[in-house]
C-alpha cells in the first residue's frame, strides 16, 4: 500500500511541476493585461504643439480640427468614445478620444510607450508613423517634451 501512495505522490508532483511550468510560460509569453500610458510630458507636448496650451473651442486646419488637441471629426468617430464631437473642446475629453484612437491604431506603441509612433499617428492617421511628413511633427513634439 505504501508503494501505491508513493507512486501517487510522484504522479502528483509531476503534474504540479507541469502546471507550474505552464503557468510561468504563460506569464512570460502573455502580453501585459493592462495598457501603459505615455508619460505626462507626451500629453503636455502634444497640447503645446497643437494649440500652444490653449483650451476651448479652437478651430484649426481650416476648420477641420477642434479643441486643444486638434481632433478631426474622422479621428473622433474612429475613437468610438461616447459623446459628441463638440465635446472635443475640453482637454480631458480630447485626451480620452486620443487615448482610445491611439490604443486602437497603435496598441504596441501604446504598451511600449513609443511616443514617436503615437505622435506621428495622432498627426497623420492610422499609418502616420510611416509618412515622411509626420517626422517634422514628431520633432516638434520631441522638443516640447524636453
Could you please describe the fold and organization of this structure?
The protein is mostly helical and 146 residues long. It has two domains: 1-30; 40-145, Lysozyme, CATH 1.10.530. Helices cover 62% and strands 4% of the residues. The chain is built from seven helices and three strands. It has helices at 2-29, 40-51, 73-79, 91-105, 107-112, 115-124, 134-145; strands at 59-60, 65-66, 71-72. The protein has a three-stranded antiparallel β-sheet with strand order 1-2-3. The longest helix has 28 residues, at 2-29. The radius of gyration is 24 Å and the shape is elongated. Residues 24-33 have low confidence and may be disordered.
Poorly predicted regions are 24-33
| Rg, Cα atoms, Å | 24 Å
- Terminal Cα span: 73 Å
Structural category: mainly alpha
Number of helices: 7
User: How many domains in all?
Assistant: 2
- Mean pLDDT across every amino acid position: 87
CATH architecture title of the largest domain: Orthogonal Bundle
Main β-sheet, spatial strand arrangement: 1-2-3
Largest sheet entry: 3 strands, antiparallel
Tell me what portion of residues adopts beta-strand conformation. Answer: under 5%
- CATH class division of the largest domain: Mainly Alpha
> H/E series, N to C?
HHEEEHHHHH
Q: How many beta-strand segments?
A: 3
Predict the CATH topology of the largest domain: Lysozyme
The percentage helix is 55-70%
The general outline is: elongated
Amino acid at each position: 500500500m505504501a508503494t501505491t501512495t508513493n507512486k501517487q505522490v510522484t504522479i502528483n508532483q509531476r503534474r504540479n511541476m507541469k502546471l507550474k511550468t505552464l503557468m510561468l510560460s504563460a506569464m512570460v509569453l502573455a502580453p501585459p493585461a493592462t495598457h501603459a500610458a505615455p508619460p505626462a510630458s507626451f500629453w503636455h507636448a502634444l497640447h503645446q504643439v497643437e494649440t500652444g496650451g490653449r483650451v476651448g473651442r479652437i478651430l484649426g486646419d481650416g476648420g477641420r480640427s477642434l479643441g486643444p488637441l486638434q481632433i478631426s471629426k474622422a479621428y473622433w468617430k474612429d475613437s468610438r468614445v461616447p459623446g459628441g464631437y463638440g465635446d472635443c473642446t475640453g482637454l480631458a475629453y480630447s485626451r480620452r478620444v486620443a487615448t482610445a484612437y491611439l490604443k486602437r491604431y497603435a496598441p504596441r506603441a501604446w504598451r511600449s510607450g513609443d511616443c514617436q509612433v503615437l505622435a506621428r499617428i495622432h498627426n497623420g492617421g492610422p499609418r502616420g508613423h510611416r509618412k515622411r511628413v509626420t517626422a517634422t511633427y514628431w520633432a516638434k513634439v520631441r522638443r516640447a517634451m524636453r
